[in-house]
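From the shared-data thread, chain only:
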Amino acid sequence: MEKIKIITDSTLDLPVSLIREKDIEVLPLLINFGEESYLDGVEITTHEMLERMEKENVLPTTAQVTPNRFEDTFKKYLNEGYKIVTLTLSSEMSGTYQSACIAKNMLESDDIVVIDSRNVTSGLGVLALKACEFRDNGDSIFEIEEKIKNIIPKVKSSLGFESLENLVRGGRLSKTAGTIGSVLGLRLILEVKEGQMAVKDKVRGSKKALKKIISDFESANVDFNSPIVIDEILNEEIFEGLKKYFEEKNIEYIHGIVGCTVGIHSGTRACGIFFIEK
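Structure, as tokens:
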């Protein structure tokens, strides 16, 4: 069986323990406060970043994983006899995918495949876990690539945000959509669609947001043999509601905590689910 390394970036938002268990290599994006840069999740935590954002009233920026960092990582594993499957966050949201492609081309290696997940946060995470599953079942890197590309359109999400200010400020959501969310206490339900954040619905208040997220899940043809992730950042109300729902239904789930890169744009008090349809 081939030695295969699954490589991805720090926007996958899965528990560190699970990342280690599945032997996934994670390359962190950069979090920039002015001239100061930190590796996402390595040199700065989500809690530390949010504290600084509030204290300094500033929205930090992010920087993609560079081609050189990908090249160094690829070289390391190729030299150890691995073949490589790399999944990155959506190319619509970052240049990280392009960086990985540049690094592959620089090395001129047929032992590397690079996949644009067309997703972000735990949508990328569930795809990385599926890649690990296929790897462990003995698939080649090209079989993994084909299977993942077939699954990408089936990754679904339903995400409730208390505030859309950071998504608008960071350019991840239109000002029009952001304005809607600020009127009369409305909560927008977002999804990742065609590689970008898109408005799915609007409801009034967190309780209705929770009901909408559950309704979206119940109306989907969920693949219960694939990972389901509840992803949250300081939103106990929706998280506890989803947790109660899944536990009462005996549905297994992974608790994902939003990392720094995604947290900049989501802000606090966001929560939702990612899953795969059949």
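Residues 154-276 form a domain with the Hypothetical Protein Tm841; Chain: A;domain 3 fold (CATH 3.30.1180.10).
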